[in-house]
Predict the structure.
Amino acid sequence: MNERFSKFARGASVATGSAAAFCIAVLVIVAWAITGPMFHFSDTWQLVINTGTTIVTFLMVFLIQNAQNRDAKAIHLKIDELILATKGARNKMIDLDRLNEAQLKQLQSEFDRICSNAQDPCDEDIKDSGHPAGSLEAGKARNENTTYA
């Protein structure tokens, strides 16, 4: 069931995100607007477009969410691969999306501190290294005792 939905969602995302789908939607709205005088701009005439757009919007929410979840997972996996392949990178940074809010705030504070130190013109190590967080050795020394999960 999940595989069928994933296939359908991928296809629907591609189709509904196309220029042709946009043009069809515009044509439907134009056709609806043109028929207004024919139906004397009645409540039923308005109900048709309101109901149609509500149903389409409701279904598209699930397709968009599926596409975003899939894209986010792919990006996370690519970044995890880069972390694993980069010598000196902290493997603790893999799967950060699994951390709770407090752990993410702690990590954000650490990076804020590193960035504020990197912008300090008096910090010669950082200026000389050319690396925004200072030398790798200095960064590793600062962060060796930090655990996130």
